[in-house]
Specification:
This protein is of the alpha+beta class. It has seven helices and 13 strands.
């Protein structure tokens, strides 16, 4: 009897999953869309005045407060799991697409913000955890902010500090000693070069503030670092010998100056570049 009941249970279970997943001819994109809607159901706003939300981030000393100003909607924590309409509920706070917490009041204290570029988003939700939508579009607001809030000069100083730590932090010194024991320099390591690349990319959000020649140098250096990382990974995987790795690495390093001279010619509207300079 128990065996029969289990058989029926699993038959119903797998039948439900199969029906939910839909016909076999459904594309992968359609399947993803289906499951997103299955786990994040919506409730459509049909009232004349649709809900609205506007979020603002306020800096309070070293911390932040997120302000959520709403219209035609009411935060109702006392009705949690009791109603499923489009005019009462709460907000869902996401930072960089990661769910953080529910928003039940206009002001929310944020003790910390992730370092770097951030997307902060609040989606209105019913008390039954259905996202509020109008014509199928979620009712939400998002803002973008960089933390810490460097200016370009401060960001470059910060990038230099990160670069210095690649060699002189405790981890960097341990790596350098290990490389030295193998007859290698600190820069002859994909790990060190990756650290250098990451420190340089920390100012990526300031590229629009760079001059043309600064941006050209930034791009050339980063591309060269990417190539050098690949080169030393090949050495570390025994795909190339040390002598060849050093020869190719030197070519890449010297190529930065050559490429920059070519860029300078182009930016100065000079037609060609030779070993003797622009023509």
């Amino acid at each position: 009897m128990i065996t029969n009941r289990l058989a029926v249970f699993f038959l119903i279970l797998f039948s439900t999953v199969a029906l939910a997943d839909g016909p076999m001819e459904r594309t992968q994109e359609e399947r993803i869309k289906f499951w997103k809607e299955y786990y994040n159901p919506k409730v459509e706003a049909t009232q004349d005045k649709a809900p609205e939300i506007k979020i603002t981030l306020h800096k309070i000393g070293p911390f932040f407060q997120l302000q959520s100003q709403i219209k035609n909607f009411k935060f109702t924590p006392e009705r949690d799991m009791k109603d499923n309409n489009a005019w009462t509920g709460y907000g869902k706070l996401y930072i960089n697409r990661n769910f953080i917490t529910r928003v039940y009041n206009e002001r929310l204290f944020l003790k910390s913000i992730p370092e770097g570029d951030n997307e902060i988003k609040v989606i209105l939700s019913s008390n039954m955890d259905h996202d509020v939508a109008k014509n199928g579009e979620l009712i939400s607001d998002q803002i973008y902010m960089r933390f810490p809030e460097y200016n370009f000069s401060e960001a470059r100083a910060h990038a230099h500090d990160l670069f210095t730590q690649c060699e002189f932090s405790n981890e960097g010194q341990i790596r350098t000693k290990k490389l030295a024991s193998m007859g290698l320099k600190a820069s002859e390591s994909s790990e060190y070069l990756q650290c250098t690349y990451d420190s340089n990319k920390s100012i990526d959000s300031f590229t629009n503030e760079m001059s043309k020649i600064q941006r050209a140098h930034y791009d050339v250096v980063n591309t060269t670092l990417e190539n050098r990382i690949s080169l030393w990974k090949s050495y570390e995987m025994n795909e190339i010998n040390l002598s060849d790795a050093r020869t190719k690495d030197l070519e890449l390093v010297n190529g930065v100056e050559t490429k920059m001279e070519q860029m300078a010619c182009s930016l100065n509207n000079r037609a060609t570049y030779s070993a003797n300079g622009c023509k």
